[in-house]
Design goal:
Blueprint: H1 2-15, E1 24-30, H2 35-53, E2 57-63, H3 66-74, E3 81-83, H4 87-95, H5 108-111, E4 114-116, E5 118-123, E6 143-146, H6 152-169, H7 173-185, E7 187-191, H8 194-202, E8 209-213, H9 214-221, E9 226-229, E10 233-235, E11 237-238, E12 241-243, H10 245-251, H11 254-263, H12 267-275, E13 279-280, H13 283-288, E14 297-299, H14 301-305, H15 308-316, H16 321-332
Parallel strand pairs: 1-2, 1-3, 6-7, 6-8, 10-14
Antiparallel strand pairs: 3-12, 4-11, 4-13, 5-8, 5-9
Helix pairs in contact: 2-12, 3-4, 6-7, 7-16
Length: 333
């Protein structure tokens, strides 16, 4: 009897020992059109982490516009990591002391493990003969895109239009403004998020053109029903990542959260990134997938617009250029 009691206590102590690791769970709060990408990433990360640490992990995902995600986290969403599509949205969390102040330097390439550009999706046969951004300003062309007032996807689009105007005119801001106004006048739907914009174009069959990330246009063109038009110039679309330190520390997930973001830079994950039509940072992977990505002149927000803070003030704040142009367009109708 006494021996049985000792054995029973030993078994219970063994179950409670540190060697018996409980499975961890982390939440990745990401932008709207990254669902498929991170489903694939998570399938790779789970065995990677198991081999590396001996621990099991479950990675859950939540998706909406990254600006909305930032606000949700600030209001209490317990995300361990963020994988956003705009620097400003991570900075909101840093300013709220949820993410490290020096988050940009925590991971390589300014904490952006992959990148993209904005491109154009048209219907099979390209009935409106779209070749570049300037064609979007022509009469009779109808456009679907994300609302630049609410989503990073839409902001990249606006900056791409304006940058194309600058490139074509040798830096003439009046002509760049004119091109931007002409394109915005042809937008028939400003959607709240990237996937909603894609659904409006591909399922509801609204619009001649969808403007969104190259990863999205390429994925949907694979169906054979659509074609991708890569413009001559576009804006570098970065996808910044960060650990939500305040949340991860409380949940005890700091190590696995950092490892998750580190994993995005591994050759294995960079292959996953490339297969999902994002441009990888790893040079060897980029060479292997070079034929998947059309050449394009890529301009950076910092060098072309003075950084995201200035671009937001100049283009997207209340009363800034986008609001001004939309009012002018409405008044002319």
């Amino acid at each position: 009897m006494k021996r049985s009691l000792i054995l029973g206590l030993t078994a219970l102590l063994g179950l409670a020992s540190p060697a018996a690791h409980a499975a961890q769970e982390i939440l990745n709060a990401s932008y709207d059109v990254s669902r498929e990408l991170f489903i694939d990433v998570n399938k790779g990360f789970v065995p990677y982490w198991k081999q590396k640490s001996g621990e099991d992990v479950t990675v859950k995902q939540t998706h909406q516009g990254s600006s909305k995600q930032a606000l949700a986290i600030r209001e209490g969403l317990r995300a361990d990591v963020v994988t956003f599509n705009q620097v400003n949205d991570v900075q909101i969390l840093a300013d709220s002391k949820l993410v490290a102040k020096d988050w940009v330097g925590k991971f390589p390439h300014n904490s952006s493990p992959f990148y993209s550009v904005h491109s154009i999706l048209v219907r099979k046969g390209n009935p409106k003969a779209i070749k570049d951004w300037s064609d979007l300003a022509k009469p009779g062309v109808t456009i679907v895109q994300v609302n630049p007032k609410t989503g990073g996807n839409g902001r990249y689009a606006v900056l791409a239009y304006y940058a194309a105007g600058l490139e074509a005119s040798g830096g003439d801001t009046a002509k760049a403004r004119e091109l931007l106004k002409g394109i915005l006048a042809n937008v028939v739907v400003f959607e709240s998020g990237g996937r909603a914009a894609t659904s409006t174009f591909t399922e509801r069959e609204i619009g001649d053109v969808l403007v969104t990330f190259e990863s999205e246009t390429s994925a949907f063109a694979a169906s054979g029903k659509f074609e991708v038009i890569t413009p001559s110039v576009s804006i570098l679309s970065e996808f910044p990542v960060a650990v939500v330190d305040k949340v991860a520390k409380k949940k005890g997930t700091e190590a696995v959260s950092k490892a998750y973001l580190d994993y995005l830079y591994t050759p294995e994950a960079q292959e996953i990134v490339a297969r999902n039509f994002y441009r990888p940072r790893n040079e060897e992977v980029a060479k292997r997938y070079a034929d998947k990505f059309a050449p394009v002149k890529v301009l950076e927000v910092d060098s072309t617009f003075g950084g995201w803070a200035k671009a937001t003030t100049d283009f997207f704040d209340n009363g800034a250029l986008v609001d001004t142009l939309l009012k002018e367009i409405a008044a002319a109708r």
